[in-house]
Amino acid sequence: MKLIKKIAAIMLSVMMVLGMASVVSADGTTTSGTYGDNGTITISNAIENQTYKIYRILKLESFSKIGTTGNYAYTVEDGWDAFVSDSTAGGKYLTKDSSGYVTWKTGVKEDDAANLAKEALEYAKKTTTITPATNAIKASGTSVIFSTLPLGYYLVDSSVGALCGLTTTNPTATIREKNGVPSVDKKVQEDSKVNTADEWGESNTADIGQTVNFQTTITAQPGAQNYVLHDKMEAGLTFGGTVTVTKNGENVDATNYTLKIATDSSANVTDGCTFEIVFTQSFCNTLKADEQIIVTYSATLNEKAAIAGEENKNTTKLTYGDSSETTPSTTTTKTFEMPVFKYTKDGTNEKALAGATFTLSKRNDGAEPIKLINGGNNTYRVAMTSEANTVTAVTTPDSGKFTIQGLDADTYYLTETQQPAGYNKLSAPITVVIDKDGAIKVDGSQTATTEVKVQNNTGTILPTTGGNGTSLIYFLGAVLALVSGVVLITKQRMKNS
Hints:
This protein is mostly beta strands. 14% of the residues lie in helices and 42% in strands. It folds into 3 domains: 5-176, no CATH class; 183-334, Immunoglobulin-like (Sandwich), CATH 2.60.40; 336-455, Immunoglobulin-like (Sandwich). Strands 2, 4, 5, 6, 7, 8, 10 and 11 form an 8-stranded antiparallel sheet that branches. Strand 26 (336-346) and strand 27 (349-352) form a beta hairpin. Helix 1 (5-17) crosses helix 3 (110-126). The relative contact order is 0.11.
């Protein structure tokens, strides 16, 4: 049967909502066609390397169109009868009469076409008897053309993960791809007192052994397909093993995704990633345009961390569709070192001092010294919580130099607990600030330095006077004592006699 003009007008308005524009005769001339004719669907603004598929839902037996209005006669394509007849699926929007002709139901709304397309796509993918109307095409430019198509009402889908739309061949039609690709944006939390506290950005600083927090934001697109988040941490970061996922500020139940960790042999993570999050398709089906999914997780900066300006990277990407992926997003975590030089002045020369013992603390009284691991060659690093055989005191070698590695940007206090023999002990801890770029400032100086230089002064023999004269005094004292003894003995004898 022929469609009434009102129904045709509704269909055209629905297609406009989906960003589609049928190619029609602008001058009002009449066009017509029958089942045996062929048509063409062109997808403009196609996305490079994305795969496009089309499914015919309805056959167009014939049509007659004048300008923007016309008459159409549709029947159900093979394999789609169950969908069209199902009152919970296509049957919510379409009706089929006793002769097999299909029309829109009375009261159809513009949003119904989008819903119909979504449900039709789900049906096509889960029904084994449904196949694309022609071979899929991967976009190599900005347009994709499906030609020599039997007239009908078509569903167009793309591997970008976003539904492209519905249109009719009468005999030609153009669909504009309006969907964007998903994206990821990764941030790391900075908690250093030297930097802005609790600031999320592209980089941070940390001690070895410190927990570092990360956030990855996925900006999704509707019709999302095969969303898998991939996260790769360099050797200096150890994944905490858990994730939290939210959408629109609400927690996403763990049944909507699977966390696969590379260290788990059964996880089958083979692309070099530290972990993956595989979202279920049922969850992806709920996503709307530009909706944000936030994944929060943590890692520990470990003993393998790159030191002193080198970056410990964490990179995230999202794969989607058939084989597409987003541009990766990367954060960096830095940790620093503190070189120390102990010396005294020999005239104008700096003379290295061995035998001075120091501790390093974040407390200005020197309490709770930082635990260290002796790495050899007068190099020490901040210890992991789980490590044994730690030390807190470092003694200078003959070179007077040692280095402490794995330090956050923060304020530290270097305390001399034992001075070299014959030298005066420092009266107070030395204040050392490591800035967010690794620069070192000592005792309030605004001038950065490459090492902490610690000078000791020696004590001296207390001054004496007299030289040989002193010896003479000692001699005369002895003589006087002897004379006094003789006098006393003589007096005693005279008294006795």
